[in-house]
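User: Sequence in, structure out. Go.
Assistant: Echoing your sequence, followed by the structure tokens.
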Amino acid sequence: MKKKLLTCLSLLSLSAIGFAQTTFESKVTINANTGANPYTIDSGLLDNDAYPDIVIGTDGGNTVEWYKNNGDGTFANAVTLTATGTEALLYVEGVHIADLDGINGNDILATSYGNSNLVWFANNGDGTFADAETIGQSLISGAGSVTTGYIDAGNTLDVVVLAYGSSDVFWFSNDGSGNFTGPFSITSVAGTGPGAIDLADYDGDGDLDAVIANTDAGTIEIYDNNLLPSGAGTVSFTKYMNTVSSGNGYLFDIEFVDVNDDGTLDILKSDNSPSTGNSNIAYYTKDTSGTATTFTETTISTSITRTSLATVADFDNDTKNDLLVTNGRVTNDDIIWFESNNTGGFAPEVSLDNTQSTIYGMTINDFDNDGDLDIATVSYFQDDLNWFENKLITLDVEDNTLQEITMYPNPVKNSLYFKGNITDDLNVSVYNVLGKQVLNAIVNQNQALDVSNLNNGVYIIKFNNYNSTYKFVKQ
């Protein structure tokens, strides 16, 4: 059989490929001596090249560390970002990469659980970052997870943060230059202890809704953003009438993702300490539309008894989402994955690694820029940062059957153009590296696709009417 590694920028359509075989290289340690108790991680473009870098936050070391991707499977030594005085960090439990000020590319957000602080580090554009600058303090009691999104449907990224100590979920409005107002409330219910959050347009009305995993209350709730379709311009959130799930023991992770590949967002949870009869990993589909919907649970059995993180991503480039799960304790395999069986379910679990434990932070990206998704993790008790290379091999490739479409420029900032043997308008869908659809459009011939509102990073674009799939980098 002829074997061919996918090493070019374009991800060739699987209609022209017999099948793909995915294996992961053994763990490669980036740093065996991070700050104490690394808890959180993110990846993205930070220094104006095409290779995603890594940022971690440490719970015991109180550090935010960034690792430059050298582009050859190695990473530079850690650079610890400066946060002193009122911006000091104590127990860093959230980091996030996003372009907050519209200049010099992506910046870095970090939260401090111990002193209730939310800060950001502006990208200087020369491989360095400015000292920490506070966004919110004191009101964010026990600051945890942090993320960004277009909460008010503008073209500037707003910031969302969990306040575990006061059971609040706050958002801050960004004017696009790194100036913030707020906090504004998404929800505040005493005793719930929000531990995880995700944002997506769950109801398809054009604004971002929120799903929240309440660790103390053991509940999963959805909050509808009322901004659109009314277009009133004022953000408010309304809780769905029905709780997605209750009776959970220790909710650790929650995500809006399409688990069963039906084109509709599901809700994927990981419960680190499920009660008898409940599952660590489960996903929920909505039975109807609207805030009165009920939900149907589908459980997924794993060999890990105390799971921490769960997510889906297309590791074998077949346009179907595979499932990845990590261990939150010291027993059982530490990382397992389930390949999609193309019918909405999964093949039996496969152990990816059993040499690290208590993985509370994981990020998925194409670290070696070879067209497939790799994995990076932090081990809480081992104080190390590792990555796993995806060695995707495609088999039985008939090169003369491939439909070629060229995209330019790539990387791109605002407008993506296409050329090739194109005879119709292009029906395109754009997905982030976790398989979440972020854009869908019809592009007329000789026109461009506007990607200016996408976060910086790597994306997959599918040309639906040509059944071809490619990758591009948004700067």
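User: And one key feature?
Assistant: The mean pLDDT is 86.
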